[in-house]
């Protein structure tokens, strides 16, 4: 029998956690009939989420509770959960009940269908996310296509079934701002999709804002790719060629036609244009330098404040 480790990042989900536990337990005890452990990583929630987690740990030793000292974000919370995995497989899912536990058998069936599959990712029939999160997902898909050569038809979501060896390899990767999707693509190419349901969020609202998604997009680009540097390099080359053409034009106008540059509008426009490009380039370089600084300082990926784990897993 295989042991399944279910990793759930938790943030302000005191209402949904008991329901999630009941549905996961019922699915594994009555349908899948395989042992499991539920790893709940509280990402410094402001509500009573960790109190609920502690109660679940007392109720069922198959539940592990971990509380982070500060809010690290979903990606680091999942990476923290990976360090507590003891199963043959790991399942990642959200805490808001949008990933139905009843869909887990579809992931397992797809994994067991071939020995050449390392990761199964749930592709939603219909996304029930808000417009901001949908936009963020498209941005992440685009960067994954460009940077990692992800097949266009492969969908990356946070509902996944992953073999243990992939988890172990991901835990060995030291990076200050990990993103699970790109890490999976760097670790294995044996990834398949299976169609699953995606339910509406029953409690609260998503913690993703537009600014957070944009920041995550740039962090992903800069941490895992030199594409922005290549982009500003090409823009710089184009601007250099353009400036040479304009210089030659002005010189020819002066000597052949006897005319000089009239007014100051075009001059101001050019100054603002090239100045904007320079400031943009400096900003990109600054983000790279910040990323390098964080990596060299070797900060821990996450800070654990508390653990609630029972020794007896029977």
Write structural notes for this entry.
With 314 residues, the protein is an alpha/beta fold. It folds into 2 domains: 4-208 and 299-308, Spore Coat Polysaccharide Biosynthesis Protein SpsA, Chain A, CATH 3.90.550; 227-297. 51% of the residues lie in helices and 14% in strands. The protein is built from 10 helices and 8 strands. It has helices at residues 17-32, 49-59, 74-82, 104-112, 131-148, 164-172, 180-187, 210-224, 227-257, 265-297; strands spanning 4-10, 36-42, 63-68, 89-92, 119-124, 160-163, 191-196, 304-308. Helix 5 runs parallel beside helix 8 and helix 9 packs antiparallel against helix 10 (265-297). It starts with a strand and ends in a 6-residue tail after the last strand. The model has no long low-confidence stretch (mean pLDDT 83).
Distance between the first and last residues' Cα:
14 Å
Spatial extent as radius of gyration? 25 Å
- What's the tally of helices? 10
Average pLDDT over all residues: 83
Secondary-structure-based class equals alpha/beta
CATH class of the largest domain equals Alpha Beta
Listing every helix as H and every strand as E from the N terminus to the C terminus, the arrangement reads EHEHEHEHEHEHHEHHHE
Strand order of the largest sheet: 7-5-6-4-1-2-3-8
Low-confidence runs of at least 5 consecutive residues: none
The dominant shape is elongated
CATH topology of the largest domain: Spore Coat Polysaccharide Biosynthesis Protein SpsA, Chain A
How does CATH name the architecture of the largest domain? Alpha-Beta Complex
Helix content: 40-55%
């Amino acid at each position: 029998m295989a042991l399944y480790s279910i990793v759930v990042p938790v943030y302000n989900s005191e209402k949904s956690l008991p329901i999630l536990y009941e549905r996961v337990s019922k699915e594994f005890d009555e349908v899948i009939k395989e042992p499991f452990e539920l790893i709940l990583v509280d990402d410094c929630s402001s509500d009573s989420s960790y109190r609920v987690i502690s109660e679940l740990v007392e109720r069922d030793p198959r539940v592990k509770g971990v509380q982070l000292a500060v809010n690290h974000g979903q990606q680091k919370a999942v990476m923290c959960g990976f360090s507590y995995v003891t199963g043959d497989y790991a399942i990642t899912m959200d805490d808001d009940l949008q990933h139905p536990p009843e869909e887990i058998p579809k992931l397992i069936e797809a994994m067991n269908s071939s020995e050449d599959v390392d990761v199964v990712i749930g592709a939603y029939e219909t996304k029930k996310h808000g417009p901001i999160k949908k936009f963020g997902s498209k941005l992440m898909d685009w960067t994954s296509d460009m940077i990692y050569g992800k097949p266009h038809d492969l969908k990356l979501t946070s509902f996944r079934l992953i073999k243990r060896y992939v988890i172990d390899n991901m835990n060995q990767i030291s990076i200050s701002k990990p993103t699970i999707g790109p890490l999976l693509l760097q670790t294995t190419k044996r990834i398949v999709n299976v169609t699953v349901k995606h339910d509406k969020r029953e409690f609260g609202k998503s913690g993703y804002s537009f600014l957070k998604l944009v920041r995550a997009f740039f962090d992903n680009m800069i941490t895992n790719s030199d594409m922005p540097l290549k982009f500003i390099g090409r823009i710089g080359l184009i601007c250099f060629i353009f400036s040479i053409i304009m210089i030659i034009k002005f010189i020819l106008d002066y000597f052949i036609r006897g005319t000089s540059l009239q007014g100051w509008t075009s001059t101001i426009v050019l100054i603002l244009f090239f100045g904007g490009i320079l400031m943009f380039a400096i900003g990109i370089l600054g983000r790279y330098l910040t990323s390098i600084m964080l990596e060299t300082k070797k900060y821990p990926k996450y800070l654990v404040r508390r653990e609630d784990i029972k020794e007896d897993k029977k």
